[in-house]
């Protein structure tokens, strides 16, 4: 779909959606899903629009015909034909069964195509270097680790615009869902698993990030600001983070992982090497297999599992010593 027709279709779709929504809601904010700022969100919106148009081919005529039938065959209309013996029409049966079947087939083909194209673990095509961010869902905060830069943040995320970002996502809390609506769809964060999600911001700006899954009393506080900046500003931000007096140690992480009501955005200049892998394998038993979805190499997975098993053996020996 070229840019001009796509813009016209989106404008029409947004106008119809706005009118329909205004009948039900008032005081609504920004329609973030309908205002994509990245290639993944763009294609997801295309799928939404195509799906709504295809479904409207069935729904709109049905609603119109329903109104016409109710109006024409009302009790006070004496001009309507009276056919008590009428029971079947091959033409009408073909229309109201054939058209929906064709639309369902078309919709299925389009959905399968987009599903494979928008596979979260699939890297984005780009001539620019990819940025890796490891994400940990905690109660009730988000921890972001930048393994290549050796820095970390809580409840704030900064990425360079027009560069692909690879998110590796897990949880040290109940299952949650990581979502930046203007950049792409959500993906679950689960303990014992590492999920991959590739996104990109096409332009600089500040975007809304949130937890899209209920995880307890203060889950509504799990919102974070996504700052998409130029490469120069991104490098400047990295240096700012590296000069932060805050650091994450194994001990301070244990304190951080405890439930808190509201955590302010914070920068950390360092964190223990391999902490993400240890978080992923934290609740694994001996011999358990690490579940991943395109988020780590086989060597990294084996190393993380070996570390978890070694820690488990040390804990067992310590308990026996007592």
TrEMBL record:
Q: How does it sit in the membrane?
A: Multi-pass membrane protein
Q: Where is the composition biased (Basic and acidic residues)?
A: 255-265
| Keyword tags | Cell membrane, Electron transport, Lipoprotein, Membrane, Oxidoreductase, Palmitate, Respiratory chain, Signal, Transmembrane, Transmembrane helix, Transport
The UniProt record lists the Cytochrome oxidase subunit II copper A binding domain at: 128-240
UniProt keyword annotation of Protein biosynthesis present? no
Gene3D superfamilies per the UniProt record, alphabetical:
1.10.287.90, Cupredoxins - blue copper proteins (2.60.40.420)
**Any Pfam family hit:** COX_ARM
Q: Where's the Cytochrome oxidase subunit II transmembrane region profile domain?
A: 25-122
Report the principal subcellular site. membrane
What domain of life does the UniProt record list for this protein's source?
Answer: Bacteria
Family to which this protein belongs: Belongs to the cytochrome c oxidase subunit 2 family.
Q: What is this protein called?
A: Quinol oxidase subunit 2
